[in-house]
Structure formats: structure tokens, C-alpha cells
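Render this sequence as a predicted structure.
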Amino acid sequence: MSLRAVVLHALVFCFVFVTVPAGFGQGTDLGTIRGVVTDASGSVVANADVKITDNATGAARQTKTNGAGEYQFFGLKSGTYKVVVSNAGFATEQVESILLQGSSVVGVNVKLRVSSAQEKIEVTVNPPEIDTEDATISDTIGSQAVIDLPADTRDVYQFLYLNPNITQADEPGGFKFLGFQSYGASFSVDGQRSNGGIFGVPTSSKPSLEAVDEVNVLSNNFSADYAGIANIRITTKRGTNQYHGSLFYNNENSALGAWTVQDKIALSQFSPSPLQPNFQRPFYNLEPRSAAQYRN
């Protein structure tokens, strides 16, 4: 094979190797709420007005049921929602506290009741124990858990170890997903791919813990829209109509540290001398760090 052919093959290989990761499925960080509207007899109600409201921002969207009584709202951010269904001759049905996490699909079926007077029925739903809308096996860690759970680092990816399918890899900071190395997984922040390096390990660029809304892990049975052997999808908090602040303090001091194995070995081998009569333990005192973040 000539030198020119060798160079050409090498360039083609590099192009394919570099560009293939960019073609990985991205899926979406946005969820879907859908359902069927029926009357008391179980017959579908077509052309009913359906309104969905984001409880955090007050933003609302509207649609109508189709001929099969079905409605769907897609592209929804994580949070709690309210669905209101109305139709002439029926009492208005209002379903509160619909929790949507990550890229989940939530089914909210509504049954309308005939009413001669202006009437509104309010229903509060609880998260279903079994999700019948989507076979994807996922795990979601909310913002409250990210802030409140004890941790010795500010790395949001440390919470991945809470998932039983994820263990520590051979390299520090790496992960194994169902026994596979971390380069088989897909990491994203707000829907943007955040894998780094040739093998797609997580990058060092990540949001602070206060900015994280949820960490969503897709580990089994997810659709082909999502690439890799697992999907780790971080969603940051949205802005609201209120000011929020946070403050953290972190101090690492040797006075509070336990003896290490190396300290114990050094102590056993220590021999006092006039210049060093006492064993000197390693000293460290990392300066306190603080930060505040505000969202509008």
C-alpha cells in the first residue's frame, strides 16, 4: 500500500472516530403529560378544552382532545403541573399536583361528570407506584436531596453512587454502569451533551449543587432516542418570580481528620531525636470557601 493510501485511510478513520460521538442520540430532558378524557359512562369526550399550568411559573398551554378523547402536552420541564378540563354540559375537572420528572411520561386520565350548574371538581393526584406509560427504568435525585445529603465534595456526579446499577470504576472519578465502564454512558446538562475526551467520560465542567434541579439516570429499557448503556441527565433550576439565595461553607482541617494508614506506619517507625523529639503528623488547613447564588 502506498504512503498516500495509508494517509488517506488514517484521515478517514480519524474523521469517523471523532464525528460518530456527535451523532449519538440526544433524547430530551423534557417530559410529557397525556391522557384520555371520558364521561361517567366511559365514552370518550372529543373536542374538550384542556389547559395545563406550570405551578412554578404560572405559564399555561391549551389544547383540545381529538376524536378519541386524547390530549398530550410535550416539551415540559420538570416540576409540578395542574390540568383543567372543561366541556359544555360537564363540570370542570381540575387535577392538581401532577409531578413531572426528567424525561418521564405521566398519564392523567380525566373523567367528566354531567352538571347542569357551573361546578368545578378539584382532584389531587399522587405519583403512581408503577408507571404504566413508559417502560423506562430511571432514577431521579431531586434538588433537595442534592443539597441536604451529606457529602465531602462539591461534585454533583457523586450522587450517582446512590443508584444500585452504578459502581466505582477502576480509575478515580470513573463509573461502571451495569458492569460497563463510564465511556459507554452518555452525560448531558440541560439537554446538551457533556461527555469529554475520546471515550466520552464526564467532563469537569458541571453546575454547582445549588443550581441543580434534578439528576435523572436512565439505566434500563430506555428508547433508542437516548445513546449509550446509560444516560445521566442533569437539569438545572428554572427561574421563578422570587429571589433565591444559597450559601455554603467548607473547611478541611487536620485537627478533625482521622489517622491514616500511612500515619500509623510512620508513627510505628518513628525514632525520637534532639531535632525532632515528637512525631509530627501531616498538617493541612484548607481555607474556608463560600459562595452565594441568586436566581430571578
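Summary. Residues 112 and 285 are 65 Å apart (CA to CA). The chain has three domains: 31-124, 135-236, 247-292.
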